[in-house]
């Protein structure tokens, strides 16, 4: 997709690409700013190359305006999601409690996995799955 965006950008040229610049920059910005664990470094390098290409193609000023608008939009979305999560905690405490229990359970499992990888002889006790019991709310 990134190669396609780069090719389209070069094909359209400087004047015709400007209206589409924010649309093209959105996935590139998302890839550059992502910090998830299984991130592919080749994708990050490719997105950086395409951003440099766009910068040369449209000029620094037009690129900066489009990039800042994309950045601002991403920050607004992030803030909106955070606000909605906080409101959901107040509005639906049972859903928030379930989410918190799930997070704690995952954290404990991660800790056990990490200990097992560091000390192969040690076997951590695993939580036995009782399907109906796990679904019930703990009071």
TrEMBL record:
InterPro entries: SSU_processome_comp_20, UTP20_C. Residues 1-116 form the U3 small nucleolar RNA-associated protein 20 C-terminal domain. GO terms for cellular component: 90S preribosome; small-subunit processome. PANTHER family: SMALL SUBUNIT PROCESSOME COMPONENT 20 HOMOLOG (PTHR17695:SF11). It comes from the Eukaryota. This is UTP20 protein.
